[in-house]
């Protein structure tokens, strides 16, 4: 199986970068992480955006190498 490492930095002096985007003609604000290999959004937001979520065999792991217990799939633009 394929694997990814994801990381969240709290209390950092780095500036948060946000962008307002249209997804399926619906406006949404996203926090951008330019160093991430993937971005994670809630299942609720995928419903709000009418996004198609496809099953995936990809494993998501935190920076500390802990596997995330629950995720639903992947989206593409």
Q: Could you explain the architecture of this structure?
A:
The relative contact order is 0.29. The strands form two sheets. The chain has a two-stranded parallel sheet with strand order 1-4. Strands 2-3 form a two-stranded antiparallel ribbon. It has one helix and four strands; from the N terminus they run βββαβ. Helices cover 8% and strands 26% of the residues. It has one domain (3-61).
Q: What order do the helices and strands come in, and which of them pair?
A:
Layout: E1 3-5, E2 17-23, E3 26-32, H1 43-48, E4 59-61
Parallel strand pairs: 1-4
Antiparallel strand pairs: 2-3
Our estimate of the beta-strand percent is 25-35%
Number of helices: 1
Radius of gyration: 14 Å
DSSP helix fraction: under 10%
Total domain units: 1
Provide the succession of SSEs. EEEHE
Number of beta-strand segments = 4
List low-confidence stretches. none
N/C terminus separation = 23 Å
Brief characterization of the structure:
The chain has 77 residues and is mostly beta strands. It is built from 1 helix and 4 strands; from the N terminus they run E-E-E-H-E.
């Amino acid at each position: 199986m394929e694997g990814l490492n994801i990381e969240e930095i709290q209390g950092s002096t780095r500036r948060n970068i946000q962008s307002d985007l249209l997804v399926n003609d619906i406006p949404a604000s996203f926090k951008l992480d330019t160093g991430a290999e993937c971005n994670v959004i809630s299942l609720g937001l995928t419903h709000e955006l009418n996004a198609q979520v496809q099953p995936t065999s990809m494993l998501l792991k935190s920076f500390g190498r802990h596997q995330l217990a629950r995720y639903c799939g992947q989206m593409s633009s």
